[in-house]
Amino acid sequence: MYSLARKLLFTLSGEAAHQVALEGLDAAAKLRLLKPLVADRIKAPVTVMGLEFPNAVGLAAGLDKNADHLLGLDQLGFGFIEVGTVTPRPQPGNPKPRLFRIPKQEAIINRMGFNNKGLDHLIQRVKKQPINGLLGINLGKNLTTPVEEAVNDYLLGLEGVYELADYVTVNISSPNTPGLRNLQYGEALKDLLQPLKEAQARLADTHQRYVPLVVKVAPDMSEEELLSLAATLRLLKLDGVIATNTTLDKSAVEGLRYGKEAGGLSGRPLTEKACDITRQLANALEGDLPIIGVGGIFSAQDAVARIEAGASLIQVYTGFIYRGPSLIGQCAEAIAGMKKT
Ligand SMILES: Cc1cc2nc3c(=O)[nH]c(=O)nc-3n(C[C@H](O)[C@H](O)[C@H](O)COP(=O)(O)O)c2cc1C
Predict the structure, then answer these.
(1) Domain limits at 180?
(2) Which terminus of the chain has fewer CB atoms gathered within 10 Å of its CB, N or C?
(3) Cα–Cα distance, 101 to 120 (Å, whole number)
């Protein structure tokens, strides 16, 4: 059934297909048509960062940037959904077109540039749509905020969403906001994360609830850079790390239509790279922080490989676009099966 829907959707431009699919999902959810069409949520609870996830498979950030489609997405059976990236103020993102499918490689190039309706909108939407899975909220900075002042935007985000989120993600790895990825390195990383950890402690006290803070990283890092990042995350006692965001390495799509578009590449070409980064991070972190593995997961086998590489949870985005909702249950079941053997 999804293959038919996909055929129709893929006749539209990338971004239009995205919109039509999500609106269709909402309509089906409202009319209660979705439940009979999709499999039940796989019940295979895992405890990570002190939270009990109904299953280990989540939706990665960027598909529901404004938390406009939580109800429909939740009915598809994810163990958790990450909304955002949200910035304090609304912003339009880059000019269209900015999302390109490359079906031959089951890939996507995007340069959306954090298009979103801003923090206030997201907060209102989350309040109106309680979900059964857990909720991650992914924070970014506005384009017009200088990178040196980025911490202020993340602090606004953290304060705004703290009481609504099960965990909060600090996204410093989008390639489409100039200078953002520089925050992943050396002193800049410490200067960003230290005040956020202090704010987290304050907020935990105020709300009498500890909300884990995780950092999302890029796959385009040398071993040395990864080791340094891991050391900082351990030192500052971050609660988790999401590996990875999209890659700037487009060698896998060279010569293909849209293969030279500017932006980050996701999907199949990222599978091995993201898995390697997970493995390297797992070695460097020595179990101090759990890893949420994302990037190029298209099958139960990919999901199992990512857990074997050291991830505790996984997320899907491009695989979900190409393979459809059945991917969620397949991955969740395969991961649950690993634990039994
Ligand atoms: C169109 C598109 C938009 C994205 N937007 C965001 C975003 O706003 N924030 C973020 O942290 N990651 C974003 N991502 C990255 C995904 O969450 C994910 O980390 C990446 O695509 C790798 O996973 P995949 O190969 O399963 O897609 C986006 C990805 C795509 C394809």
Answers:
(1) 2-340
(2) C
(3) 31
